[in-house]
Specification:
Layout lengths: L8 E5 L2 E4 L7 E5 L2 E4 L15 H9 L4 E5 L10 H9 L4 E4 L1 H12 L4 E6 L3
Parallel strand pairs: 5-6, 5-7
Antiparallel strand pairs: 1-2, 3-4, 3-7
Pfam family, one: DUF498
InterPro entries: MTH938-like_sf, NDUFAF3/AAMDC
Keywords: Cytoplasm
Length: 123
């Protein structure tokens, strides 16, 4: 069975992202076959300690074999070291970058890799 392609990000600016096939929004969880708004309240996410294991699990459940994590436009969003350890233990390559750079990395992988990502379009 072929893996579904991850949606591409058409544009990103402060507080707004456009993802192919989805309504525009602020923050997104993207994965092979689709994506959805990223509601931080679902997991109690905060800028610090930042992205936790619970925040990335859905990406893997949806088939992501590579993960891109954005740190916000001003690099304010932290990545919990336990999250990076978790992905490493699972053998999942992870890219961490400022949001615009994270979008570039993600889009470069979306056509050829089962990539998932968490994108924060402010701070």
């Amino acid at each position: 069975m072929a893996t579904e392609q991850s949606p591409t990000i058409a544009s990103v600016s402060w507080g707004k992202m456009k993802v192919t096939g989805l309504e525009p929004g602020k923050d997104f969880k993207l994965y092979p076959g689709g994506g959805r708004p990223w509601d931080w309240g679902e997991t109690g996410m905060r800028h610090n300690p930042g992205v936790r294991v619970v925040d990335v699990e859905e990406l893997l459940q949806k088939g992501a074999t590579t993960v891109v994590l954005s740190q916000g436009m001003d690099l304010k969003l932290q990545i919990d070291p336990a999250t990076l350890n978790y992905l490493e233990e699972k053998g999942v390559p992870v890219h961490v970058a400022e949001t615009r750079k994270a979008v570039e990395i993600y889009n470069s992988l979306a056509g050829t890799t089962a990539v998932g990502g968490l994108f924060h379009s402010t701070c």
